[in-house]
Amino acid sequence: MKIVLIFDQGLAGAGGKTNPNVGLTAVKGGIGSALMLESHFAKIGATVAATLYCGNEYFLNNQEEVIKKMTAMAKKVNPDFVVCGPCFNFPDYAKMAAMISASISENTDLKSCAMMSVENADTIENYKDKTPIVKMPKKGGTGLNDSFSDLCDLITGMVENSSDLESIKNRVCY
User: Fold this and answer.
1) Reduced to 3 states, what is the DSSP secondary structure of residue 31?
2) d(CA 60, CA 119)
3) How far apart are CA 50 and CA 31, in angstroms?
4) Which residues of 98-120 are buried (b: 16+ CB within 10 A; e: fewer)?
5) Can you identify the CATH homologous superfamily of domain 2-172?
6) Which end of the chain is more exposed for a tag (fewer CB within 10 A), N or C?
């Protein structure tokens, strides 16, 4: 199973808060924080085919362009699933992830979700009916591995069109 990850500059390892204007970038395979997801993805037979990312400030200044191009780039890679996140409690990244995941769901045949903590309540409220949003803790540590396992349950359920999909969504999403 092929996965595309959509990150901000921090999770991509491209500079964090010191480099918020990183332009739209695509890299083959997983980079940055993809490493923390690999063992979970391996359990469901998934690998990261590509990582797409840009800086938070770049996104805020070019929202329409970024959403359109990331949607098109994801479609070109043609993965089985697109994961926008994990966003933890980062509000700009959460907004970007939710908007891109919703665009992918609306404009392609690809399956997608976002992943963020409850601290992003406004984004969750605005997008939970447009794309699945997986629950996660605001920081690493307690509950993080469980949320990654939940993400994998959602991916498997959506890719396999599981008869249990609504039950999975109710358990792992907002």
Assistant:
1) coil
2) 19
3) 9
4) bbbbbbbbeeeebbbbbbbbebb
5) Response regulator (3.40.50.2300)
6) N
**Of residues 44, 78, 74, 47, the one with CA closest to residue 156:** 44
DSSP-assigned letter for residue 160: T
- Residue 140 has a pLDDT of 74
- Residue 2 in contact with residue 47, Cβ under 8 Å? yes
Please give the Cα distance from 109 to 45 (Å, whole number). Answer: 21
The tokens describing 82, both together, are 């697109």
Cα distances from 146 to residues 40, 134, 149, in angstroms, run: 10, 11, 5
- Domain coordinates in residue numbering, the chain: 2-172
Which residues of the chain, if any, have pLDDT below 70?
none
